[in-house]
Amino acid sequence: MAVGFGDTSQDRRVRVQGEPVDSFPRFAPEVGRGSVRRITVVGEEILRRRCREVTRFGTPELSRLIDDMFATNQVADGAGLAANQIDVDLQLFVWDITDEWGVRHVGHIANPVLDDVPAEDRRLVEEPEGCLSVPGPFRVVSRPDHAVVRGRDKDGNPLVIEGSGYFARCLQHETDHLHGHLYLDRLAQRERKTALREMAESQDEVYARRAARAEELGK
Fold it and tell me: Residue 1 falls within a domain, yes or no?
């Protein structure tokens, strides 16, 4: 998911893996350890199929993948990133996002499942949404303003992450990715075509910004 507003670089109130912490660095430690990978783009087959469940936890390979996802997300100035966005067929995503209330959320989750929200309790909010795999355009998308996602951390421990507002949108957006869905799928056909045209016109500029950011971070 692309950043729509907020500054994720400042040290504010922080929740890591859903738990509050007293302090946190500007860049998550994973960013320093990770390597930047190429971000897949709409049209690539891996973005259109349901990803495989993570079955091996506590491995160096899984930790390295998470580090790389954080580094790639940071260079792309993203709010969140799913594994299939770096061409890895696994149900896994990371996030580093500051919500409307100034709370920074940082973490990762494997095999995420969103709780169903009863219709009578569902409050839909329309906000601009972008995607690192659709470089450039943002479009208004309607989503519930609250989300609870359940899964596992990298060591296999049960994990429950709850979010409201922009963070809830991020949790839903990234879970969608792991089921083979993009935010473009929620748009009318004409609007989707317009967004793709804007992407084609702006992606070179977006890639240049990412390259400059990578150089700035020594990546």
Answer: no
